Amino acid sequence: MKTMTCQDLGGPCELEHRAATADEIIKAQDKHLREAVKSGDETHAAARDAMKGRWMHPKKSLDWYNGVKRAYADLPAS
Ligand SMILES: [Zn+2]
């Protein structure tokens, strides 16, 4: 398991996600952004839109995904 924060993933807060793979971390962040925006948290709206754009343009977003995967791989396991 490794930990990345909302901020590590382009979001505005320091909520920590723990997961066994980078993909799971990205999914957890996606869920967190959706729930935050749904509950009226405007500070997460820009990150939510960016994440939505990534799902719609996966090829253009490869750099972002690879960056997250690299950052995840470099983290110490805990
Ligand atoms: Zn957050």
UniProtKB/TrEMBL annotation:
Q: Which Pfam families match?
A: DUF1059 (PF06348)
List, alphabetically, the InterPro entries matched.
Answer: DUF1059
Descriptive protein name: DUF1059 domain-containing protein
Whose protein is this, by species? Subtercola boreus
